[in-house]
Amino acid sequence: MPASPATTAAERRALRWEILLVLAITFGASGARAALRLIEALARPERLDRQTTTLNGAQSALWWLDPAFQLISTGVLCAWGGLAMFLLLRHVPAAAAPLRPTPAGTPTHRHPLRPRRADILPGILLAAAIGLPGLAFYLASLHLGLSKHVDAAGISAALGSGPGGHWYTLPLVILNAWANGFAEELVVVAWLCTRMRQLRVPWGWVFAASAVLRGSYHLYQGPSAGVGNVVMGLVFVWWYRRTGRVWPLIVAHGLIDTVAFAGSGLLGPVGG
Questions:
Q1: Contacts of 147 (CB under 8 A, 6+ apart)
Q2: Measured by CB atoms within 10 angstroms of the end CB, which terminus of the chain is less buried, N or C?
Q3: In the predicted model, what is the mean pLDDT of residues 174-181?
Q4: Helix, strand, or coil here: 52?
Q5: 2 found inside a domain
Q6: Helix (H) or strand (E) segment spanning residue 260
Q7: What was the pLDDT predicted at 67?
């Protein structure tokens, strides 16, 4: 996304505070929490590959109340992504006019934050390019004891192959998969990369910051998940720098998580 750099000390200070505060309430906090979970897992007597981490687990013992909790969690992710989009559209340095809403008379499909049908195919191709090697990497890491078993709880039951799930489990998990993609790609790629470039941070450091942040909040699954997501982060930032489009990344991420979560129910714990 094109963005003019911050030109005054006040603008740069505001951007630094924005980065600190947004990350503190979104994926920065998630990364710190995940790192502590990894330390906790490594301190346990059993090997990492003998442990299981559960995704999308029940949040209430009352089956009729659990969907409300699940929807709130999904809503929080959507709010994180919405906050990043709002900040990019509204709260930008005065010099960063290209980030403002599309002026009247300008074709709306050109706006970099507006989804379009042309984003779907690149998203599907990115999902295949990242998802298939990612699954192989997860299975190899599990074999080497570098990853926990990742289980999307309740999916087996929702698909008719196991106990403990409900009819609403699968649609809520798919909704959460796409909320993850929406939040992560808008915050970790579009917003963070734009803000860092406005602070004149070299692209090399932008790549590193975005990729390491993505890897950090997956560490609860094991160190291999951190490494795998760093690689994914590098590819996604490369795509964003090359095209200026974030929606193909959202499509790719949503598809990857959907297949991983549903695959966990169909095939057993295979990834996430």
A1: 48, 49, 138, 141, 221, 222, 223, 224, 225
A2: N
A3: 95
A4: strand
A5: no
A6: helix 247-267
A7: 93
DSSP-assigned letter for residue 28: H
Collapsing DSSP to helix, strand or coil, 23 comes out as helix
Q: What is the pLDDT of residue 271?
A: 40
Count of CB atoms situated within 10 Å of the CB of 206: 21
Q: Which of 19, 57, 232, 249 is nearest to 150 (CA)?
A: 57
Q: How many domains does the chain have?
A: 1
Bridge partners for 150 per DSSP: 53
191-209, pLDDT tens digit by residue? 999 999 999 999 999 999 9
Query: pLDDT at residue 96 above 50?
Result: no
pLDDT surpasses 90 at 239? yes
- pLDDT over threshold 70, residue 98: no
105 domain residue, yes or no: no
Residues of the domain holding 126:
9-95+116-267
User: Is 103 inside a domain boundary?
Assistant: no
Q: Which amino acid, one-letter code, is at 62? A: L
Number of residues in the chain: 272
Within a domain: 13: yes
